[in-house]
Specification:
The chain is of the alpha+beta class. The protein has one domain: Alpha-Beta Plaits. The chain is built from 2 helices and 4 strands; from the N terminus they run βαββαβ. This is Ketohydroxyglutarate aldolase.
Length: 77
């Protein structure tokens, strides 16, 4: 599974919970619904990611990026 961030379009902000339910029915594991900012975060199988873009109310689906910083004593710091 890959971590994703779904942005909900302005017309569906008042029904963001329904958008989250639709995403779940398309295979997404919804971890958090941020109704104030219109973001739903979670994870999905990589093969199912593109299908989420067709869910009503979804403006965009982005893959989470992970940054790993080496410990302070690692070379070359």
């Amino acid at each position: 599974m890959i971590g994703i961030i779904v942005t909900v379009d302005a017309d569906h902000l008042d029904t963001i919970e329904a958008v989250g339910a639709a995403l779940r029915s398309h295979g997404m594991r919804v971890d958090q619904v941020h109704d104030t900012i219109g973001i739903i975060s979670g994870a999905v199988d990589e093969d199912d990611r593109a299908e989420l873009e067709s869910v009503a109310g979804v403006q965009s689906v982005e893959t989470e990026n992970t940054v790993q910083i080496p410990p302070p004593d690692a070379y070359p710091q």
